[in-house]
Fold:
Amino acid sequence: MRSITRLTLTGLCVALLGTGCSAASPTRDFVGPSGIGPSGSIPSPTSTAISSAAPTVQPASPDSWLMVGQEGSAGLQVILASTRTVLFDLPTGAPLDSRWGRILAATPAGADTLIRDFVLEPGPAGASITIGGAWQLPRIGPDPVPVGESLNGRTIVLAEYARPTTDGTTRFALLDGSLSKPARIITLHGRFDFDALSPDGATLYLVEHLDAAAGGAYQVRAVDVASGTLKDGVVADKSQLVEQMAGYPLAQTRRNDGVVLTLYRGREHPFVHALNSLDGWAVCLDLPATHADDAVAAADWGLAPSPDGRSVYAVNATLGLVVELDPTQPGVVRTATVKPLADQDIVLAKFGHQAGGPADRRVVVSSDGRRIYAAGRGGILEIDAA
Structure:
């Protein structure tokens, strides 16, 4: 069995590139060879049980794996890129390594939630743990790929799913990354959403909503993971202490140095909230306000880092706007206008399991760093990064 060499994730496609392919077959979230017919179709998973059976090896071939999500499907399918043959099913999960050889998934198990480390590459079976109640890995805005694990792998955060908030509290579950210890449930007074974790998993950052309106005013708070309590004060932009933040999160990228960049659609213009998750400070970087009142076009902003990590690009293909950010300062390096694609009423391919909504991620950078690909209302725009 040959190992997977790289996985490239986009909202346009999620590609698993390698020199050979193999398939694993636990019965709930992977479909074994018996479930793959000659036409490549598979039955939809209906059981929450997960088998511990050993992976079933298929003959290696010089091909690539493509991970795709389809409308009406509860998870993902891994297929051969050349033939579209379905190899196995996966739940939608968060990658635990850069090659997507392992993913972390939270799936319903009756009245409980099963958290499991899925191993796609050869190796020992991943750990698992069950938590009472309905929990999920958090997501950032419309991005269908969940988050919630610290970069060092030692802390996992789950958000409670669909619990009535009539008591004015929000609950999160804190897990050890090994999935070997019982979950700790923390209850906070107020309305909170997940924002980020520090690389060492010691600090959890949350967005605290200050009003009932969607996309309304918010502030960023920090939680000490060891004690499960809110730290005093708020995480504010030191350069704009008076301005109140408000908006919808659209995309996020995090760096090994602890800087987390989140792109928001603001009330007056889009902006990037640059959080230093190690030291607990933030800077807001304004993006062009061009057609900010166009709700459809405003939702087409995306965020993607360059392969060398020196730049992060905020791009809107529908408006033809490109902003290069320096994530180390952080600051805006340059802004460019490119010719947007004509509106051809193209419907972007769906990635995820919801019945409708936008496709993400909208922006990716080529592996050599020379080209930026951005999805917009008129299709996919190729931009020279230079």
Summary: The first helix runs from residue 295 to 298. DSSP finds one helix and 28 strands in the chain.
